[in-house]
Every structure is written in C-alpha cells, then in structure tokens.
Amino acid sequence: MNRYVIINAPKTPSVIDVEDARVFKTEYAGHAVEMIREICASDPSAEIHVYGGDGSVFESINALMASGCSEKMVMYIHPFGTGNDFARNFSEDEHNQAHTIDLIRFNEKYAVNEINIGFDCDVVCLTQKVKKCKIFKGSAAYMVSVFLSLLKPMGKKMSLTVTDENGNTEAISSKLLLCLVANGGYYGGGFKCAPRAELNDGLLEFLTVKKISRFKFLTFFLGYRKGKHILSDGTLHHKYASFLNYKRVKSVVFHNIGNICADGEIFSYDELSVSVEEKAVRVCVMNQAK
Questions:
Q1: Domain residue spans of the chain
Q2: Above 80 in pLDDT, residue 149?
C-alpha cells in the first residue's frame, strides 16, 4: 500500500510520523483537494495522511466523497490546526484507530462537525479577520469576535422545516439569534455546542436560540461554551429553557437563508437542504499535536 502525506497546516510540522511516505505541501487554497482527488483516481488503495486543522478535514472529506473512494479508504487526520475541533470528538483512547462516522450533507457538500447560521456565522466571518492580527489565535480569536459581534444588530428572520428522529415534520418561521445543526460536539476552538452529539448515531443535533437581550445572551454564552445548556438526559438547563429549542433530527430545509458556516467555511445559499449521511467515511485521528 502506498502512503501519501499532505501538509496543509499553518506551520510545517517538525516531525512527520509516517514511514515510507511521499510528502507533499500545499501551495494554495484548494490544493489539498486537488491532490487527494488525483491520488484517489490513480491509487484507490492508497493511505492518505492529512496534516492540518478543521479546514483541512473539511477539504479532505469532501475530496474523498467526490472521488468515490469513501468506502475503500481511511482518511488519517493529524491535527495541526489552531482549533482542532474535529479531533476533540475523540478521546485519547480512540486515537490511532479507524472509526466509521456520519456526515452532514448540505446541498452538494459535506460537513463533519457542524453548520451554523445567524450569530455564530457572523462570528466566524469576523474571526477570519481577527486572526490576521497575530496576537489572537484559536479560541482567543473566536472569543474576541463574539464580543465584537455583540456590538452589531442581533437576530435574523429564519424560515425552515425540520424532520425529527421519529419522522415528524415541523415548520418554523421566527426571528432567531442562531441556529445550529451538529454532527460533532465542538466548534470555535473548544465550544461544546452539542454535548450529546455522536458521530455515528445516524442523527443530527438541532439547536435554535430565540432573539434575546445582550445581557441574557452573555449569561447563556458562559454555559453554552462549557456545554451546560443541554443536560445528559436531553433536557434543557432551566436557565435557558425559555429561549432555547433542542432536538435530534434527520434533516432540515432552510428557505431564503443567505450565509452559513460549515466547519468554519463560509457559503451562501438561497435554499439549503441539510441531512445526515449515515456511515459515510472512515477516519483515523492520530495523536494530537502538542
């Protein structure tokens, strides 16, 4: 079996812990996608190792799905990004092992961790700018962007249709602060947005927050960051029950939606169809970068 290493990390790792591998370093945005597609087309039994962050995971998984090799290959992820939220879904005991996971299908693309719309999406857009100031990285850049976003108008009229885990359909049309559809449990450099999420349960976590005052949002924000908004039995913490809605779903359709954030990447859609793609890929998260 041929082994390939693709380095798509902000900083080149000092140690490449893959023996007898051909090593490539990306040179421009989207280069990793091109290389993975070429490898899959020419060597479907290859072993591909990607060194990078959550953006690299997003790119590599979409390239793998587009190649038609997702059932044959294991994608090896070496977390060398600033946030590494995908890697947070795996305990140390689960590292260096192959796991079959679900994906979030959104129109023609796939997300691994989450899709967020509204306030969180605005924060990510701003975070990309804040990161250019090199003193803020990872979760620090995200935190700064949260508080800067609080200075702007909050709340967005959303129209969507939700199909829950039992097949029941609900139409929602309301002004919401944010909407989250999650497969993994983390985003934003460690925010535990979906504490009950499992990557292989065939379901997506669905969360909406009504438009609330900035003061109430700040009290919610602290618990949200630590994953305290949803209890282990699936009920809501009593502090947040008046403005928070949570359920497990199979699909969500958004109408006239605009910008969305998928695994930290920004896209714009008019109509957006989101669903779970069960047992879509096999991944192996290697020991996290120190």
A1: 3-81, 114-279
A2: no
51 vs 60: CA distance, rounded Å: 10
CATH number of 3-81: 3.40.50.10330
**pLDDT, tens digit (0-9, with 9 covering 90-100), for 165-200:** 999 999 999 999 999 999 999 988 888 999 999 999
The structure tokens 């559809």 sit at 181
Determine the pLDDT at residue 141.
77
What is the reported pTM? 0.90
Reported as a single tens digit per residue, the pLDDT across 54-87 is 999 999 999 999 998 898 899 999 999 878 999 9
The pLDDT value given to residue 181: 98
DSSP letters for the chain:
--EEEEE--SS--S----TTEEEEE--STTHHHHHHHHHHHH-TT-EEEEEE-HHHHHHHHHHHHHHT-TTT-EEEEEE-SSS-TTGGGS-GGGTTSEEEEEEEEETTEEESSEEEEEHHHHHHHHHHHHTTSTT--HHHHHHHHHHHHTTS---EEEEEEEEETTS-EEEEEEEEEEEEEESSS-BTTTB-S-TT--TTSS-EEEEEEE---HHHHHHHHHHHHHT-SB-TTSPBPTTTTTTEEEEEEEEEEEES-EEEEETTEEEEESSEEEEEEEEEEEEEEPSPP-
Question: Does domain 114-279 sit in CATH 1.10.10.10?
Answer: no
